[in-house]
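Q: Hi! First time doing this. I have a protein sequence and I read that you can turn it into a structure. Is that right? Here it is:
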Amino acid sequence: MTVYDLDLEQLTERLVSWGEPAYRARQVYAQLWRRSATYDEMTDLSAALRGRLEAELPLGVEVLDERTADRGATRKVLLQLGGRHVIETVLMGYRDRATACVSSQSGCAMNCSFCATGQMGLMNNLSAGEIAAQVVWARRAASRLPPSTPRRIPNVVFMGMGEPFANERPVLAAVARLVDPRGMRLGSRHITISTVGVVPAIKRLPDANDQVRLAVSFHAADDELRNELVPANRLWPLDDLVEAIAGWRERTHHRPSIEWAMIDGVNDSDEQAHKLAPIAFGLHAHVNLIPLNPTHGSPTRPSPPGRIRAFVQVLERAGVNVTVRDTRGRPIEAACGQLRWEHDRATAAV
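A: Yes, that's right. Below is the predicted 3D structure, encoded as structure tokens:
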């Protein structure tokens, strides 16, 4: 267990058991989450207390590898959390905002055919504290972004390693930790959870937080192709998925996002675009087209620009809101799972 796994009440109970006053826990909690401070930086605490916190409630965030691209605006880090789990986190700086892309699992069991993380298989679920600690790292790393980028981290997307809804309870607990007004105080509407389409969890999401945004990885607009690309579709086929998204939208009044990796010769045809258009239009969804980031050992390639433009035109003519996502971080292979593969190979070669 690390200190990030404790909410304020649990931290208060622990420190009071050490003979500390209750307000001391509030001091520590605020500095951990609001300032993203380390124990050494909490100079208003006694050296003895800082030492005991480090020994019994460690921060548990170790940087194993870090790389940058886009003139320092994209930072990808390999983290060891709690001394056990190795995951990757990405920090992306833009002119008007910064976004932390966090992992919910080490590896992934969804086995999507084009995803390097999915090919790794599932190693471990992350705890709520291990998930939220990635945002703490991102806040500290934001100071090293280019001067033109805001230093604040207002946006968090669960689009790193793992399927968030396959680790649902810790993910929602991490969200609660991030939006806690006594701690980090992020706005729920600036948090997006991305899923391959775990229908029961989509239906439950508004009960946990009706302000968190939803993104769904479609990648195909018929069950036959989606069964190949996203095996979870065999459990929750498109009709059930679309119904769940529509229910989420009706309860939250928010626009869902549809994520679509553009794979050359696989799912980038006009036929797929025509199938997607009425689904997206009916859901009032925003479609994000993502040129596929190639992964080691995979024969798949990103769709050429002309094919992407044709796909966009079909959607726009149908009245669908669509954008092509900026392919940032490719020089450091910032697609999910790639840095981990490189670290594994480098370690094995030593």
